Amino acid sequence: MPRLVVISNRVAVPKARGVPGAQGGLAGALNAALKANGGIWFGWSGEETDKFTGSINYVRSAEGVTTATIDLEHQDVEEYYNGYANSTLWPLFHYRIDLTRYEREFGKGYERVNERFAESALPLIEPEDSVWVHDYHLLPLGERLRSMSIENRMGFFLHTPWPPTNLFVSLPYHERLVRAMLHYDLLGFQNNTWLESFLHYCGKELGADVAPETGAVTLEGKTTIARAYPIGIDFDHFMSKGDTGEARQAQQRLMASTRRRTAMIGVDRLDYSKGLPERLDGISRFFDRHPERTRDLVFIQIAPPSREDIGSYQQIRATLEQKAGQINGARSDVDVVPVRYVNRGYAQEELFGFYRASKIGLVTPLRDGMNLVAKEYVAAQDPDDPGVLILSMFAGAAQQFDCDGEGALLINPHSADDIAHNIRIALDMPLEERKSRYEKLITSVREENVQRWTENFVGDLAGVER
Ligand code: F6P
Questions:
Q1: Is residue 424 packed enough to be buried (19+ CB in 10 Å), middle (13-18) or exposed (0-12)?
Q2: CA of 103 to the centre of ligand 1 (A)
Q3: Ligand 1: which residue has its CA nearest to atom 14?
Q4: Which residue has the least CA distance to atom 8 on ligand 1?
Q5: pLDDT in tens, 212-248
Q6: What would the pLDDT profile of 330-364 be if each residue is shown by its tens digit?
Q7: How far is CA 89 from each of CA 100, 170, 415, rounded to the nearest angstrom?
Protein backbone atom coordinates (compact mmCIF):
# COMPACT_ATOMS: atom_id res chain seq x y z
CA MET A 1 0.00 0.00 0.00
CA PRO A 2 1.29 3.52 -0.76
CA ARG A 3 2.18 5.87 2.07
CA LEU A 4 -0.80 7.92 3.22
CA VAL A 5 -1.11 11.64 3.75
CA VAL A 6 -4.28 12.08 5.76
CA ILE A 7 -5.71 15.58 5.99
CA SER A 8 -8.57 16.48 8.33
CA ASN A 9 -9.63 19.49 10.34
CA ARG A 10 -8.64 17.93 13.65
CA VAL A 11 -5.84 15.50 14.31
CA ALA A 12 -5.17 13.39 17.38
CA VAL A 13 -2.66 15.80 18.88
CA PRO A 14 -2.10 15.09 22.55
CA LYS A 15 -3.86 17.73 24.61
CA ALA A 16 -5.44 19.55 21.65
CA ARG A 17 -7.70 22.12 23.29
CA GLY A 18 -7.10 20.60 26.71
CA VAL A 19 -8.61 17.20 25.86
CA PRO A 20 -6.60 13.97 25.57
CA GLY A 21 -6.35 13.93 21.76
CA ALA A 22 -9.08 14.82 19.28
CA GLN A 23 -12.40 13.30 20.33
CA GLY A 24 -14.86 11.27 18.34
CA GLY A 25 -14.92 8.48 15.86
CA LEU A 26 -12.92 10.18 13.16
CA ALA A 27 -9.82 10.44 15.32
CA GLY A 28 -9.82 6.78 16.31
CA ALA A 29 -10.44 5.66 12.77
CA LEU A 30 -7.64 7.70 11.26
CA ASN A 31 -5.11 6.69 13.88
CA ALA A 32 -5.81 3.09 12.95
CA ALA A 33 -5.43 3.82 9.21
CA LEU A 34 -2.08 5.52 9.70
CA LYS A 35 -0.78 2.78 11.95
CA ALA A 36 -1.55 0.29 9.20
CA ASN A 37 -0.14 2.22 6.22
CA GLY A 38 2.46 4.61 7.63
CA GLY A 39 2.45 8.25 6.63
CA ILE A 40 1.54 11.56 8.08
CA TRP A 41 -1.58 13.23 9.44
CA PHE A 42 -2.01 16.92 8.79
CA GLY A 43 -4.56 19.33 10.24
CA TRP A 44 -5.38 22.14 12.62
CA SER A 45 -3.72 22.08 16.05
CA GLY A 46 -6.87 23.40 17.74
CA GLU A 47 -4.84 26.48 18.75
CA GLU A 48 -5.76 30.06 17.81
CA THR A 49 -3.23 32.83 17.17
CA ASP A 50 -3.51 36.55 16.37
CA LYS A 51 -1.81 36.17 12.99
CA PHE A 52 -1.52 33.11 10.75
CA THR A 53 2.15 32.07 10.41
CA GLY A 54 1.88 28.78 8.51
CA SER A 55 4.59 27.20 10.66
CA ILE A 56 4.14 23.46 11.09
CA ASN A 57 4.43 21.57 14.41
CA TYR A 58 5.45 17.93 14.16
CA VAL A 59 4.62 15.40 16.86
CA ARG A 60 5.37 11.68 16.79
CA SER A 61 2.91 9.79 18.97
CA ALA A 62 3.75 6.79 21.14
CA GLU A 63 1.83 4.70 18.58
CA GLY A 64 4.23 5.80 15.83
CA VAL A 65 1.91 8.19 13.98
CA THR A 66 3.40 11.53 12.91
CA THR A 67 1.09 14.49 13.05
CA ALA A 68 1.81 17.86 11.45
CA THR A 69 -0.37 20.76 12.50
CA ILE A 70 -0.84 24.44 11.90
CA ASP A 71 -2.41 27.03 14.17
CA LEU A 72 -5.26 29.13 12.76
CA GLU A 73 -5.94 32.78 13.49
CA HIS A 74 -9.06 33.91 15.40
CA GLN A 75 -10.82 35.12 12.29
CA ASP A 76 -10.22 31.75 10.58
CA VAL A 77 -11.74 29.87 13.49
CA GLU A 78 -14.69 32.21 13.57
CA GLU A 79 -15.45 32.15 9.84
CA TYR A 80 -14.27 28.68 8.80
CA TYR A 81 -14.81 26.42 11.86
CA ASN A 82 -17.64 28.12 13.80
CA GLY A 83 -18.93 29.71 10.60
CA TYR A 84 -19.08 27.86 7.29
CA ALA A 85 -18.21 24.37 8.56
CA ASN A 86 -20.41 24.29 11.65
CA SER A 87 -23.08 26.94 11.09
CA THR A 88 -23.62 26.39 7.37
CA LEU A 89 -22.58 22.91 6.21
CA TRP A 90 -23.13 20.92 9.42
CA PRO A 91 -26.80 21.89 9.92
CA LEU A 92 -27.51 21.71 6.18
CA PHE A 93 -25.93 18.24 5.89
CA HIS A 94 -28.06 17.12 8.86
CA TYR A 95 -31.24 18.37 7.13
CA ARG A 96 -31.59 21.36 9.50
CA ILE A 97 -32.03 24.27 7.10
CA ASP A 98 -33.87 26.04 9.92
CA LEU A 99 -30.50 26.34 11.71
CA THR A 100 -28.35 26.92 8.63
CA ARG A 101 -26.68 30.34 8.35
CA TYR A 102 -25.58 31.63 4.99
CA GLU A 103 -23.07 34.44 5.50
CA ARG A 104 -20.77 35.68 2.77
CA GLU A 105 -17.92 36.13 5.29
CA PHE A 106 -18.19 32.47 6.35
CA GLY A 107 -17.77 31.36 2.73
CA LYS A 108 -14.71 33.57 2.27
CA GLY A 109 -13.14 32.31 5.49
CA TYR A 110 -13.78 28.71 4.42
CA GLU A 111 -12.03 29.23 1.10
CA ARG A 112 -9.15 31.08 2.77
CA VAL A 113 -8.55 28.28 5.28
CA ASN A 114 -8.77 25.60 2.58
CA GLU A 115 -6.12 27.55 0.67
CA ARG A 116 -3.99 27.72 3.84
CA PHE A 117 -4.37 23.98 4.39
CA ALA A 118 -3.31 23.32 0.78
CA GLU A 119 -0.23 25.58 0.95
CA SER A 120 0.86 24.09 4.26
CA ALA A 121 0.24 20.45 3.28
CA LEU A 122 1.95 20.82 -0.13
CA PRO A 123 5.56 20.24 1.07
CA LEU A 124 4.48 17.12 3.00
CA ILE A 125 3.21 15.29 -0.09
CA GLU A 126 5.69 13.01 -1.90
CA PRO A 127 5.09 11.88 -5.49
CA GLU A 128 3.93 8.31 -4.72
CA ASP A 129 1.73 9.18 -1.72
CA SER A 130 -2.02 8.71 -1.64
CA VAL A 131 -3.75 11.77 -0.21
CA TRP A 132 -6.87 11.12 1.84
CA VAL A 133 -8.92 14.17 2.86
CA HIS A 134 -11.70 14.00 5.45
CA ASP A 135 -14.98 15.68 6.10
CA TYR A 136 -17.07 18.72 5.36
CA HIS A 137 -14.46 21.21 6.54
CA LEU A 138 -12.30 20.44 3.53
CA LEU A 139 -14.59 19.82 0.55
CA PRO A 140 -12.61 22.13 -1.82
CA LEU A 141 -9.13 21.12 -0.64
CA GLY A 142 -8.55 18.66 -3.50
CA GLU A 143 -9.23 21.34 -6.07
CA ARG A 144 -6.84 23.71 -4.26
CA LEU A 145 -4.10 21.05 -4.27
CA ARG A 146 -4.66 20.28 -7.96
CA SER A 147 -4.27 24.00 -8.71
CA MET A 148 -0.83 23.68 -7.06
CA SER A 149 0.08 20.89 -9.50
CA ILE A 150 -0.46 17.94 -7.14
CA GLU A 151 -0.99 14.94 -9.42
CA ASN A 152 -1.20 12.28 -6.70
CA ARG A 153 -4.20 10.03 -6.22
CA MET A 154 -6.57 11.94 -3.98
CA GLY A 155 -9.59 10.63 -2.13
CA PHE A 156 -12.17 12.28 0.08
CA PHE A 157 -14.43 10.74 2.71
CA LEU A 158 -17.50 12.47 4.11
CA HIS A 159 -18.29 11.41 7.70
CA THR A 160 -21.67 13.16 7.76
CA PRO A 161 -24.82 12.60 5.70
CA TRP A 162 -25.15 14.18 2.27
CA PRO A 163 -28.55 15.91 2.08
CA PRO A 164 -31.22 15.45 -0.59
CA THR A 165 -30.83 17.70 -3.63
CA ASN A 166 -33.82 19.90 -2.81
CA LEU A 167 -32.18 20.84 0.51
CA PHE A 168 -28.64 21.11 -0.79
CA VAL A 169 -29.60 23.64 -3.49
CA SER A 170 -30.48 26.12 -0.71
CA LEU A 171 -26.72 26.61 -0.32
CA PRO A 172 -25.49 29.65 -2.26
CA TYR A 173 -22.78 28.62 -4.77
CA HIS A 174 -23.61 24.93 -4.28
CA GLU A 175 -22.44 24.17 -7.80
CA ARG A 176 -19.01 25.58 -7.15
CA LEU A 177 -18.57 23.40 -4.08
CA VAL A 178 -19.50 20.17 -5.83
CA ARG A 179 -17.47 20.98 -8.92
CA ALA A 180 -14.49 21.42 -6.58
CA MET A 181 -15.21 18.00 -5.04
CA LEU A 182 -15.01 16.40 -8.48
CA HIS A 183 -11.25 17.10 -8.49
CA TYR A 184 -10.84 14.15 -6.12
CA ASP A 185 -10.39 10.75 -7.77
CA LEU A 186 -12.54 8.90 -5.21
CA LEU A 187 -15.39 10.16 -3.04
CA GLY A 188 -16.57 8.06 -0.10
CA PHE A 189 -19.92 8.26 1.72
CA GLN A 190 -21.11 6.40 4.81
CA ASN A 191 -24.00 4.64 3.07
CA ASN A 192 -26.08 4.32 -0.08
CA THR A 193 -28.64 6.93 0.96
CA TRP A 194 -26.07 9.73 1.12
CA LEU A 195 -24.31 8.38 -1.98
CA GLU A 196 -27.53 8.33 -3.99
CA SER A 197 -28.33 11.92 -2.95
CA PHE A 198 -24.91 13.01 -4.14
CA LEU A 199 -25.21 11.19 -7.47
CA HIS A 200 -28.69 12.60 -7.95
CA TYR A 201 -27.36 16.12 -7.41
CA CYS A 202 -24.52 15.62 -9.91
CA GLY A 203 -26.90 14.39 -12.59
CA LYS A 204 -29.69 16.87 -12.02
CA GLU A 205 -27.88 20.08 -11.14
CA LEU A 206 -24.52 19.75 -12.90
CA GLY A 207 -25.71 17.72 -15.87
CA ALA A 208 -22.89 15.22 -15.17
CA ASP A 209 -22.92 11.77 -16.68
CA VAL A 210 -23.67 9.43 -13.78
CA ALA A 211 -23.33 5.64 -13.84
CA PRO A 212 -25.03 4.45 -10.64
CA GLU A 213 -23.70 0.85 -10.93
CA THR A 214 -20.06 1.96 -10.79
CA GLY A 215 -20.48 5.36 -9.09
CA ALA A 216 -18.65 7.03 -11.98
CA VAL A 217 -19.46 10.74 -12.30
CA THR A 218 -18.13 12.28 -15.48
CA LEU A 219 -18.10 16.02 -16.00
CA GLU A 220 -16.24 17.84 -18.75
CA GLY A 221 -14.11 14.80 -19.56
CA LYS A 222 -12.96 14.09 -15.99
CA THR A 223 -14.30 11.06 -14.08
CA THR A 224 -14.58 10.73 -10.30
CA ILE A 225 -15.74 7.53 -8.61
CA ALA A 226 -18.26 7.89 -5.75
CA ARG A 227 -19.00 4.90 -3.48
CA ALA A 228 -20.30 3.96 -0.04
CA TYR A 229 -17.75 2.86 2.58
CA PRO A 230 -19.50 2.40 5.95
CA ILE A 231 -17.05 3.17 8.73
CA GLY A 232 -16.50 0.84 11.69
CA ILE A 233 -14.74 0.89 15.03
CA ASP A 234 -11.21 -0.30 15.78
CA PHE A 235 -12.70 -3.45 17.28
CA ASP A 236 -9.59 -5.11 18.76
CA HIS A 237 -8.33 -1.83 20.18
CA PHE A 238 -11.69 -1.06 21.77
CA MET A 239 -11.97 -4.57 23.22
CA SER A 240 -8.52 -4.21 24.74
CA LYS A 241 -9.83 -1.14 26.60
CA GLY A 242 -12.45 -3.38 28.19
CA ASP A 243 -9.76 -5.60 29.59
CA THR A 244 -8.41 -2.98 31.98
CA GLY A 245 -8.82 -2.11 35.62
CA GLU A 246 -10.29 1.26 34.67
CA ALA A 247 -13.06 -0.39 32.64
CA ARG A 248 -13.91 -2.85 35.41
CA GLN A 249 -13.88 -0.10 37.99
CA ALA A 250 -16.19 2.09 35.89
CA GLN A 251 -18.59 -0.82 35.43
CA GLN A 252 -18.63 -1.51 39.17
CA ARG A 253 -19.08 2.16 39.94
CA LEU A 254 -22.17 2.44 37.80
CA MET A 255 -23.62 -0.87 38.95
CA ALA A 256 -23.10 -0.03 42.60
CA SER A 257 -24.83 3.30 42.19
CA THR A 258 -27.84 1.92 40.30
CA ARG A 259 -28.22 -1.29 42.34
CA ARG A 260 -31.44 -3.12 41.43
CA ARG A 261 -32.44 -0.65 38.77
CA THR A 262 -31.74 -1.09 35.06
CA ALA A 263 -29.22 1.43 33.77
CA MET A 264 -29.98 2.89 30.33
CA ILE A 265 -27.21 4.96 28.72
CA GLY A 266 -26.76 7.59 26.01
CA VAL A 267 -23.36 8.99 25.02
CA ASP A 268 -23.31 11.85 22.54
CA ARG A 269 -21.53 15.09 21.76
CA LEU A 270 -23.94 17.80 22.84
CA ASP A 271 -25.24 18.42 19.32
CA TYR A 272 -28.76 19.10 18.02
CA SER A 273 -28.33 16.36 15.41
CA LYS A 274 -28.23 13.75 18.19
CA GLY A 275 -31.92 14.08 19.08
CA LEU A 276 -31.30 14.64 22.79
CA PRO A 277 -34.41 16.71 23.68
CA GLU A 278 -36.55 14.26 21.74
CA ARG A 279 -34.89 11.40 23.65
CA LEU A 280 -35.74 13.01 26.99
CA ASP A 281 -39.32 13.51 25.78
CA GLY A 282 -39.46 9.79 25.01
CA ILE A 283 -38.19 8.92 28.48
CA SER A 284 -40.64 11.32 30.05
CA ARG A 285 -43.43 9.65 28.05
CA PHE A 286 -42.28 6.26 29.32
CA PHE A 287 -42.52 7.41 32.93
CA ASP A 288 -45.92 9.03 32.26
CA ARG A 289 -47.19 5.72 30.92
CA HIS A 290 -45.53 3.55 33.54
CA PRO A 291 -45.18 5.59 36.72
CA GLU A 292 -44.79 2.35 38.68
CA ARG A 293 -41.47 1.77 36.86
CA THR A 294 -39.74 4.92 38.07
CA ARG A 295 -37.79 2.72 40.47
CA ASP A 296 -36.84 0.21 37.74
CA LEU A 297 -34.96 2.48 35.37
CA VAL A 298 -32.23 5.09 35.61
CA PHE A 299 -31.10 6.95 32.52
CA ILE A 300 -27.52 8.18 32.26
CA GLN A 301 -26.89 10.75 29.55
CA ILE A 302 -23.24 11.61 28.98
CA ALA A 303 -23.07 14.71 26.78
CA PRO A 304 -19.73 16.51 26.58
CA PRO A 305 -20.29 20.09 25.33
CA SER A 306 -19.24 20.78 21.77
CA ARG A 307 -18.78 23.84 19.52
CA GLU A 308 -19.67 26.05 22.45
CA ASP A 309 -19.16 29.39 20.66
CA ILE A 310 -22.10 28.69 18.33
CA GLY A 311 -25.56 29.97 19.33
CA SER A 312 -27.50 26.85 18.29
CA TYR A 313 -25.25 24.74 20.53
CA GLN A 314 -25.75 27.08 23.48
CA GLN A 315 -29.47 26.84 22.91
CA ILE A 316 -29.59 23.05 22.80
CA ARG A 317 -27.63 22.95 26.05
CA ALA A 318 -30.15 25.21 27.77
CA THR A 319 -33.05 23.13 26.42
CA LEU A 320 -31.55 19.93 27.76
CA GLU A 321 -30.86 21.35 31.19
CA GLN A 322 -34.47 22.41 31.39
CA LYS A 323 -35.88 19.08 30.21
CA ALA A 324 -33.65 16.96 32.46
CA GLY A 325 -34.57 19.24 35.38
CA GLN A 326 -38.28 18.89 34.57
CA ILE A 327 -38.22 15.10 34.51
CA ASN A 328 -36.23 14.89 37.72
CA GLY A 329 -38.37 17.52 39.42
CA ALA A 330 -41.52 15.60 38.59
CA ARG A 331 -40.25 12.05 39.17
CA SER A 332 -37.50 12.10 41.79
CA ASP A 333 -37.83 10.89 45.34
CA VAL A 334 -35.35 11.28 48.16
CA ASP A 335 -33.62 8.08 47.01
CA VAL A 336 -34.48 8.06 43.30
CA VAL A 337 -33.31 10.38 40.51
CA PRO A 338 -34.43 9.04 37.13
CA VAL A 339 -32.10 11.07 34.86
CA ARG A 340 -28.39 11.63 35.42
CA TYR A 341 -27.27 14.26 32.97
CA VAL A 342 -23.50 14.65 32.77
CA ASN A 343 -21.73 17.34 30.72
CA ARG A 344 -18.29 15.82 30.49
CA GLY A 345 -16.30 13.32 28.45
CA TYR A 346 -14.77 10.06 29.70
CA ALA A 347 -11.82 7.92 28.65
CA GLN A 348 -12.63 4.95 26.39
CA GLU A 349 -11.89 2.49 29.21
CA GLU A 350 -14.49 4.13 31.41
CA LEU A 351 -17.04 4.30 28.61
CA PHE A 352 -16.52 0.61 27.98
CA GLY A 353 -17.35 -0.07 31.64
CA PHE A 354 -20.40 2.21 31.59
CA TYR A 355 -21.73 0.58 28.41
CA ARG A 356 -21.29 -2.87 29.90
CA ALA A 357 -23.11 -1.90 33.08
CA SER A 358 -26.05 -0.54 31.05
CA LYS A 359 -28.72 -2.98 29.92
CA ILE A 360 -30.13 -0.52 27.38
CA GLY A 361 -28.16 1.68 24.95
CA LEU A 362 -30.17 4.59 23.62
CA VAL A 363 -28.83 6.02 20.33
CA THR A 364 -31.48 8.25 18.79
CA PRO A 365 -29.98 10.86 16.44
CA LEU A 366 -32.36 12.75 14.16
CA ARG A 367 -29.77 12.30 11.43
CA ASP A 368 -26.27 10.83 11.65
CA GLY A 369 -23.63 9.85 9.09
CA MET A 370 -22.96 6.54 10.90
CA ASN A 371 -22.83 6.75 14.74
CA LEU A 372 -20.01 4.77 16.29
CA VAL A 373 -21.45 4.93 19.81
CA ALA A 374 -24.02 2.36 18.66
CA LYS A 375 -21.17 0.06 17.62
CA GLU A 376 -19.13 0.62 20.78
CA TYR A 377 -22.18 -0.09 22.93
CA VAL A 378 -22.66 -3.46 21.22
CA ALA A 379 -18.94 -4.29 21.41
CA ALA A 380 -18.88 -3.66 25.16
CA GLN A 381 -21.73 -6.05 26.01
CA ASP A 382 -21.34 -9.25 27.99
CA PRO A 383 -22.15 -12.06 25.48
CA ASP A 384 -23.81 -14.10 28.26
CA ASP A 385 -26.06 -11.26 29.41
CA PRO A 386 -26.08 -8.58 26.68
CA GLY A 387 -27.97 -5.30 26.77
CA VAL A 388 -30.41 -4.07 24.11
CA LEU A 389 -29.58 -1.36 21.57
CA ILE A 390 -32.39 1.10 20.75
CA LEU A 391 -31.33 2.80 17.55
CA SER A 392 -32.68 5.61 15.39
CA MET A 393 -33.74 4.56 11.91
CA PHE A 394 -32.04 7.77 10.70
CA ALA A 395 -28.52 6.82 11.84
CA GLY A 396 -26.25 5.44 9.13
CA ALA A 397 -25.61 2.52 11.51
CA ALA A 398 -29.24 1.39 11.13
CA GLN A 399 -28.67 0.75 7.43
CA GLN A 400 -25.48 -1.15 8.10
CA PHE A 401 -27.00 -3.28 10.88
CA ASP A 402 -29.40 -4.67 8.33
CA CYS A 403 -30.79 -7.47 10.52
CA ASP A 404 -34.42 -7.51 9.31
CA GLY A 405 -35.56 -6.09 12.63
CA GLU A 406 -33.74 -8.82 14.55
CA GLY A 407 -30.76 -6.78 15.75
CA ALA A 408 -31.31 -3.35 17.27
CA LEU A 409 -34.78 -2.07 18.16
CA LEU A 410 -35.22 0.55 15.46
CA ILE A 411 -37.20 3.65 16.40
CA ASN A 412 -38.34 6.94 14.94
CA PRO A 413 -36.47 9.49 17.09
CA HIS A 414 -39.14 12.16 16.49
CA SER A 415 -41.79 10.03 18.16
CA ALA A 416 -41.87 10.10 21.97
CA ASP A 417 -44.40 7.25 21.83
CA ASP A 418 -42.09 5.07 19.78
CA ILE A 419 -39.15 5.69 22.12
CA ALA A 420 -41.28 5.01 25.20
CA HIS A 421 -42.76 1.85 23.71
CA ASN A 422 -39.34 0.44 22.82
CA ILE A 423 -37.87 1.23 26.23
CA ARG A 424 -40.57 -0.96 27.69
CA ILE A 425 -39.84 -3.73 25.19
CA ALA A 426 -36.12 -3.53 25.98
CA LEU A 427 -36.72 -3.59 29.74
CA ASP A 428 -38.83 -6.72 29.49
CA MET A 429 -36.87 -8.55 26.81
CA PRO A 430 -36.03 -12.15 27.72
CA LEU A 431 -32.39 -13.22 27.81
CA GLU A 432 -32.68 -15.53 24.78
CA GLU A 433 -33.95 -12.72 22.56
CA ARG A 434 -31.28 -10.33 23.85
CA LYS A 435 -28.62 -12.89 23.01
CA SER A 436 -29.88 -13.57 19.51
CA ARG A 437 -30.12 -9.85 18.72
CA TYR A 438 -26.65 -9.28 20.14
CA GLU A 439 -25.17 -12.10 18.02
CA LYS A 440 -26.44 -10.45 14.84
CA LEU A 441 -25.10 -7.04 15.81
CA ILE A 442 -21.71 -8.12 17.13
CA THR A 443 -20.92 -9.98 13.90
CA SER A 444 -21.33 -6.76 11.94
CA VAL A 445 -19.39 -4.67 14.50
CA ARG A 446 -16.51 -7.16 14.59
CA GLU A 447 -16.22 -7.75 10.85
CA GLU A 448 -17.09 -4.38 9.37
CA ASN A 449 -14.39 -2.70 11.40
CA VAL A 450 -12.24 0.32 10.76
CA GLN A 451 -9.41 -1.76 9.30
CA ARG A 452 -11.76 -3.09 6.64
CA TRP A 453 -13.05 0.42 5.96
CA THR A 454 -9.49 1.68 5.48
CA GLU A 455 -8.45 -1.25 3.30
CA ASN A 456 -11.51 -0.83 1.10
CA PHE A 457 -11.08 2.92 0.64
CA VAL A 458 -7.30 3.00 0.31
CA GLY A 459 -7.37 -0.10 -1.92
CA ASP A 460 -9.93 1.48 -4.27
CA LEU A 461 -7.99 4.73 -4.29
CA ALA A 462 -4.83 2.86 -5.31
CA GLY A 463 -6.81 1.30 -8.17
CA VAL A 464 -8.37 4.40 -9.71
CA GLU A 465 -7.08 5.43 -13.10
CA ARG A 466 -5.42 8.80 -13.37
O1 F6P B 1 -17.95 13.89 11.14
C2 F6P B 1 -18.25 14.51 12.29
C3 F6P B 1 -17.09 14.66 13.23
O4 F6P B 1 -15.91 14.95 12.56
C5 F6P B 1 -16.93 13.42 14.10
O6 F6P B 1 -16.14 12.43 13.56
C7 F6P B 1 -16.39 13.97 15.37
O8 F6P B 1 -16.87 13.25 16.45
C9 F6P B 1 -16.94 15.36 15.41
O10 F6P B 1 -17.36 15.70 14.13
C11 F6P B 1 -15.93 16.32 15.98
O12 F6P B 1 -16.41 17.61 16.00
P13 F6P B 1 -15.49 18.85 16.34
O14 F6P B 1 -14.17 18.63 15.68
O15 F6P B 1 -16.21 20.02 15.79
O16 F6P B 1 -15.37 18.87 17.82
A1: middle
A2: 22
A3: 10
A4: 24
A5: 999 999 999 999 999 999 999 999 989 999 999 999 9
A6: 999 999 999 999 999 999 999 999 999 999 999 99
A7: 7, 11, 26
| Distance from Cα 331 to the centre of ligand 1, integer Å | 34
Helix, strand, or coil here: 193?
helix
pTM: 0.95
Ligand 1 atom at minimal distance to the Cα of residue 22: 14
Distance 92 CA to ligand 1 centre (A): 15
Structural domains in the chain, sorted by start? 4-232+450-462 (3.40.50.2000), 235-447 (3.40.50.2000)
Confidence of residue 329 (pLDDT cuts 50, 70, 90): very high
Buried b (16+ CB within 10 A) or exposed e, 283-299: bbbbbeeeeebbeebbb
pLDDT, residue 31, reads 77
Smallest CA separation from ligand 1 atom 4, residue:
26
Q: Residue 163: phi, psi to the nearest 5?
A: -75, 165
Find the residues whose C-beta lies inside 6 A of ligand 1. Answer: 10, 24-26, 135, 159-160, 306-307, 369
Residue nearest to atom 11 of ligand 1 (CA): 24
The model's confidence at residue 29, banded by pLDDT at 50, 70 and 90, is low
Q: Which positions are catalytic?
A: 159, 368
Complex confidence, ipTM? 0.95
Give the Å distance between the CA of 21 and the centre of ligand 1: 12
6 in Cβ contact with 40 (< 8 Å):
yes
